[in-house]
Amino acid sequence: MPPVKLLAVVFLPLLVIGCNRDEAPTGTEPPLKSTAVETHEVPPQTVKPAASSAGAVNTGRLLAADSEPGSWMSYGRTYSEQRYSPLDRVDT
């Protein structure tokens, strides 16, 4: 029996039986649990302003990316997108 036909034969009757209108909620019953939501105050945070402009990135700087190991001028750091960081340590 193809899977689609099996679904129609087995699950469609179960779906129809499960959707009996006599058992469907009418919307007049009270909710089962409290619908109250707890909220918490979040202290304001200071955000550093965005850079006013991007640095000047050109083909020469991309080709010499190893001379500036801390600057990722493209998604993969180098012109070949190798994504390797030669840094010994990362500071935040």
SSE blueprint and pairings:
Layout: H1 3-18, H2 59-63
How would you characterize this protein structure?
The protein has a domain at 57-83. It is mostly helical. 23% of the residues lie in helices and 0% in strands. The model has no long low-confidence stretch (mean pLDDT 77). It has helices at 3-18, 59-63. The longest helix has 16 residues, at 3-18.
Assess the beta-strand content as a share of residues: under 5%
Low-confidence runs of at least 5 consecutive residues: none
Count of helical segments? 2
Count every beta strand, where a strand is a DSSP E run of 2 or more residues. 0
Distance, first to last CA = 61 Å
Q: Assembly state here?
A: single chain
Query: How do the helices and strands follow one another from N- to C-terminus?
Result: HH
Structure classification: mainly alpha
Radius of gyration: 30 Å
Structural shape: elongated
Nearest-integer average pLDDT = 77
Biggest beta sheet summary: none
Helical fraction:
10-25%
